[in-house]
């Protein structure tokens, strides 16, 4: 006897991967997430592979995880996948202090982020549009 199983939040042609507490500000992570939004998965992987942003490696891992979830857990066709959603959320913020002149201190905030990537299988008619 346990809790009843939760209903699936996504549609049948979607899969998701979440990376939590990534050590980068949400604003910087959103720049990389916006780079792949709406693109085909193979194009998005190529863009992330050759991106010069430090965080693109973590975004690439999350995207590959979403593709693996789609293939293994939901039996979706990998070649027909598109990055449907890539959104960023705020996480914890570490607060640190930095010594300044005249005995003062200033606050340094080190933010963390969450990243969620949803991939969707599209039919060939939608790709042409």
Automatic annotation (TrEMBL):
<dbReference type="InterPro" id="IPR005727">
    <property type="entry name" value="Ribosomal_uL22_bac/chlpt-type"/>
</dbReference>
<protein>
    <recommendedName>
        <fullName>Large ribosomal subunit protein uL22</fullName>
    </recommendedName>
</protein>
<dbReference type="Pfam" id="PF00237">
    <property type="entry name" value="Ribosomal_L22"/>
</dbReference>
<dbReference type="GO" id="GO:0003735">
    <property type="term" value="F:structural constituent of ribosome"/>
</dbReference>
<dbReference type="InterPro" id="IPR001063">
    <property type="entry name" value="Ribosomal_uL22"/>
</dbReference>
<dbReference type="InterPro" id="IPR018260">
    <property type="entry name" value="Ribosomal_uL22_CS"/>
</dbReference>
<dbReference type="InterPro" id="IPR036394">
    <property type="entry name" value="Ribosomal_uL22_sf"/>
</dbReference>
<dbReference type="GO" id="GO:0006412">
    <property type="term" value="P:translation"/>
</dbReference>
<comment type="function">
    <text>The globular domain of the protein is located near the polypeptide exit tunnel on the outside of the subunit, while an extended beta-hairpin is found that lines the wall of the exit tunnel in the center of the 70S ribosome.</text>
</comment>
<keyword id="KW-0694">RNA-binding</keyword>
<keyword id="KW-0689">Ribosomal protein</keyword>
<keyword id="KW-0687">Ribonucleoprotein</keyword>
<comment type="subunit">
    <text>Part of the 50S ribosomal subunit.</text>
</comment>
<dbReference type="GO" id="GO:0019843">
    <property type="term" value="F:rRNA binding"/>
</dbReference>
<comment type="similarity">
    <text>Belongs to the universal ribosomal protein uL22 family.</text>
</comment>
<keyword id="KW-0699">rRNA-binding</keyword>
<dbReference type="InterPro" id="IPR047867">
    <property type="entry name" value="Ribosomal_uL22_bac/org-type"/>
</dbReference>
<dbReference type="GO" id="GO:0022625">
    <property type="term" value="C:cytosolic large ribosomal subunit"/>
</dbReference>
<comment type="function">
    <text>This protein binds specifically to 23S rRNA; its binding is stimulated by other ribosomal proteins, e.g., L4, L17, and L20. It is important during the early stages of 50S assembly. It makes multiple contacts with different domains of the 23S rRNA in the assembled 50S subunit and ribosome.</text>
</comment>
């Amino acid at each position: 006897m346990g809790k009843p199983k939760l209903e699936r939040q996504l549609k049948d042609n979607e899969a998701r991967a979440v990376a939590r507490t990534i050590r980068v500000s949400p604003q910087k992570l959103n720049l990389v997430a916006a780079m792949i939004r709406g693109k085909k998965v193979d194009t998005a992987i190529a863009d992330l592979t050759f991106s010069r942003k430090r965080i693109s490696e973590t975004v690439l891992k999350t995207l590959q995880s979403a593709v693996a979830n789609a293939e293994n857990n939901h039996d979706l066709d990998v070649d027909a996948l598109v990055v449907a959603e890539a959104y960023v959320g705020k996480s914890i913020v570490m607060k640190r202090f930095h010594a300044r002149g005249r005995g003062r201190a200033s606050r340094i905030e080190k933010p963390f982020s969450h990243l969620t990537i949803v991939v969707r299988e599209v039919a060939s008619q939608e790709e042409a549009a």
